Amino acid sequence: MFEEERKQKIVLFVEKNSRASVQELSQEMGVSESTVRRDLKELEEAKLLKRTHGGAVSLQSVNFEAAYPDKEDHLLDEKQRIARKAVEMIQEGDAILLDAGTTTLQIARELKNFSNIKVITNSIMALNELRDCRNIEVSITGGMLRPDTMAFVGPMTERSLDMVRVDKTFLATNGLDLREGITTPNMLEAATKRKMIAVAKQVILLADHSKLGQISFSKVADVTEMDHCIIDSGASDKFIREITQLGVDFTLV
Per UniProt, which keywords does this protein have (predicted)? Predict the structure, then answer.
């Protein structure tokens, strides 16, 4: 394994597990502990993790939330594959609810061939994508706008959602952990997502593999509350085995 490849694997391992010891990393990477310590020093200098006594921790705390522009192009191919599979679940005549997120934005971009659907969203980006589609009835929830996610959230958004019932909600997430559930850094966003779940006949969760095993500050729901999950094929064998054991309906793309 080349040095740069090893360092990338160390960062991914620490981010996935939130923390790691030098001994764990030594075993995982198949190198000496002294090599791991040198790598951790260089990775900390590059601001990719934080060293601790005996190991390292992820810089991405449960309260971390990347800004929308920083997320939009990340794992774009995976998000597009997830979106195309999601669109296959939509039928003419459906009323659908699109959560705010970079993957749900890809769904909005795939909807233009439909001629008889209703779309409700709390996403400024999705609204902008669909604004000229005269064959689709588009509604925006309103509420308090969070610039980091370009999403309307809060009590006004929830009251707006109380007025509708939809066939399908397409839900975005920051974290999907099989024990801790679906999580997001912001409590208002979490409450809005819970309302989106409550008003739908069917809830479809969208999660690229970077979200798997991640835990954020505010819980939205348990994974078992989802009717279906669409996950890209970057999911680990361990994750696939465990989600199958839980009995959660899912599709890999």
Answer: DNA-binding, Transcription, Transcription regulation
